[in-house]
Design the sequence.
């Protein structure tokens, strides 16, 4: 059983479209992080959200932490081929242990 | 980039042989982690360390051991490799607001 459930697991859309990726849990997290991973490399941190209801923007990417701190979403506006990659959400559990969702593999077609 | 180096980057080994993967950091960070990444599972924590000679198990620790004799080095050993341990292994450092990952070791057990 995955502590953090991401949906969808695969998403293929056309350049210029908008999309939202979801990260849900039945557990409360003190913070949630989003990472992006490219082939042959390790995950790279995009953002950390800490406060329930918090919204953070990173250019065309908008991250939101749920009010109850159990879920988060990543919204991409006007997707570009350069956004292609594996997106992972992660929450801290216990003594600094990072728990990951299974990932969303995003493909943006030109 | 934070200085994390994993070695080797690729390895093919036979079932039943011992294998050691190395993670080296130049950030003098207290916390270090080993994860494995498999399709559909995201990243799962194998072991982590919170100081020299201080280690603890993660969610998928069976068949793995670790050692940390110096702050900068964290070793992951597969005592007797099995095909189910074919995976991509990532080392990470960090805590709280963000974690930094190495580029990974792709291990194939044949």
Sequence:
């Amino acid at each position: 059983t995955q502590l953090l459930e991401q949906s969808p697991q695969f998403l293929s859309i056309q350049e210029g479209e908008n999309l939202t990726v979801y990260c849900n849990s039945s557990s409360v997290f003190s913070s949630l992080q989003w990472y992006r991973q490219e082939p042959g490399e390790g995950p790279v941190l995009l953002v950390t959200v800490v406060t329930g209801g918090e919204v953070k923007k990173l250019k065309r990417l908008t991250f939101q932490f749920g009010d109850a701190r159990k879920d988060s979403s990543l919204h991409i506006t006007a997707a570009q081929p350069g956004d292609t990659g594996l997106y992972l959400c992660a929450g801290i559990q216990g003594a600094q242990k990072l728990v990951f969702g299974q990932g969303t593999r995003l493909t943006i077609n030109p | 980039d934070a200085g994390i180096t994993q070695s080797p980057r690729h390895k093919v080994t036979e079932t039943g042989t011992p294998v050691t993967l190395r993670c080296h950091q130049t950030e003098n960070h207290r916390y270090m982690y080993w994860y494995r990444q498999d399709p559909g599972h995201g990243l799962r924590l194998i072991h982590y360390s919170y100081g020299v000679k201080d280690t603890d198990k993660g969610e998928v620790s069976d068949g793995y051991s670790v050692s940390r004799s110096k702050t900068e080095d964290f070793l992951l050993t597969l005592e007797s490799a099995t095909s189910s341990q074919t995976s991509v292994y990532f080392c990470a450092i960090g805590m709280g607001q963000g974690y930094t990952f190495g580029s990974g070791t792709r291990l194939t057990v044949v």
User: Anything to note?
Assistant: The two ends of chain B are 34 Å apart (CA to CA). The mean pLDDT of chain B is 94. The longest strand of chain B covers residues 42-51. Chain B is about 0% helix and 60% strand.
